[in-house]
């Protein structure tokens, strides 16, 4: 019983930190204004490394459930963040579980970043952007135009994915991974 309670408390604390970090978002140069960088996956990765893939997934879910109360996207943005964040955290956790050392952590974070980037491209093209169109009456042309304003290479939905979604997620993965590598060992002893 004590172990389950400690596990639950750790997840709750990390999810709370992630929810706070999710609010502290900032735009990225050369990207459409709605693609904003936040560091909320860092507590999720730390939790996944220390407590396992399920813990990481729960942290990503909880931070989005907390954030949905202040949504401007009818929950679509939070669903997108949950799906894409899960594709970063869960594969990274499984790879790290095989080799719990610095090399394993680097391999895990590279795997998670590539998984997240691929998932973001596929999900945005086939699910999320069409969902914005249906639920919020936000036409793909408006998304493309916002992308073109930031990057003239964006001329349609496919180039939006190639020149906005993919670079943004690679950039986010690199930044989140770098910070995770710098702080994980310092906080992991507290979580164990």
UniProtKB/TrEMBL annotation:
Chief localization class? Answer: membrane
- Which regions span the lipid bilayer? 6-30, 42-62, 74-96, 108-129, 160-184
Q: What InterPro entries has UniProt attached to this entry?
A: ECF_trnsprt_substrate-spec (IPR024529), RibU (IPR025720)
Taxonomic placement:
Bacteria, Bacillati, Bacillota, Negativicutes, Selenomonadales
Gene Ontology MF terms: riboflavin transmembrane transporter activity
Could you identify this protein by its name?
Riboflavin transporter
Keyword Ion transport present in the record's keywords: the answer is no
List the keywords (alphabetical): Cell membrane, Membrane, Transmembrane, Transmembrane helix, Transport
List localization entries. Answer: Cell membrane
Functional summary from the UniProt entry: Probably a riboflavin-binding protein that interacts with the energy-coupling factor (ECF) ABC-transporter complex.
The way this protein sits in the membrane is described as: Multi-pass membrane protein
User: GO CC terms for this protein?
Assistant: plasma membrane
**Which species is this record about?**
Sporomusa malonica
Can the keyword ATP-binding be found in this entry's annotation? Answer: no
By sequence similarity, the record places it as follows: Belongs to the prokaryotic riboflavin transporter (P-RFT) (TC 2.A.87) family.
